[in-house]
Amino acid sequence: MNDTDAIVFVVDDDPSIREAIESLVKLSGLRVETFGNAQEFLRSKRADLPGCIVLDVELPGLSGLDLQRELAVHGIKLPIVFITGYGDIPMSVRAMKAGATEFLTKPFRDQDLLDAIQQALERDRAERQHSSEIAGLRKRFDALTSREREVMSLVVAGWLNKQIGFELKISEITVKIHRGRVMNKMGAQSLAELVRMTERLEIPTMKDQNTKTR
Fold this sequence. Notes:
Rossmann fold; Arc Repressor Mutant, subunit A; about 15% strand; elongated; five-stranded parallel beta sheet; 2 domains; about 210 residues; alpha/beta
C-alpha cells in the first residue's frame, strides 16, 4: 500500500490486538492511530486525510455499532471495517446495511484485513473527490446572478433562446449574453455538460413549466 497521505484508526479494547493491528498497518506503509474505546475516538482531533476505522464490535461503553450510528448522526463518513470475535450473520448484515465496508471475524488473515483497509481507503478517497467536485460546482453556481440562474434553468430544460426571451421578457441577444456568461462561469464546454452539472447539483429545472408554457 505505502500511502502516508492516509490514516487508519484502530478502535479495540484489547491492547494486544490494537498493537498487532498497529504494527501490521505501519508495515504496510500507512499511518495509524489507536484507541481503547469509542469515547476516546470521538474526543480525538483527527487529521483531514483519507482514512478508515478498524472497529471492534464489542467495546466497553459505546459498542462498535453504537459508534457507527454516532458517526452517521454527526455526518462523519469514515468507512468502517468491523472486526469481532463474536460475529453472527444478523449483526454483520446490520453493520453492512449501515455502511460498513467489511465485517471480519477473529481470527482473520492479515491480508484479509489489509485488503479490507485498502478497499475502505479507496472508498473514502472517491467520496472526498466527489464532495470536492460538488463543492466546486456549487461555488460556481452560487456565483451566478438570479437572472443567469433563470436562464440556466430554461437552457438545461431545452428551451430555445427565443422562447427564453419571451418567457423572461428580455431580448434574444440578452439571452445569448446571459447564456454565454452561464457557460463561462460554470466552466461548461457544451450544453450536455451543463445539464450534467445541473443533475449533479440536483438543481430543479423548468421542465414542468416548459411543458405548460409550450
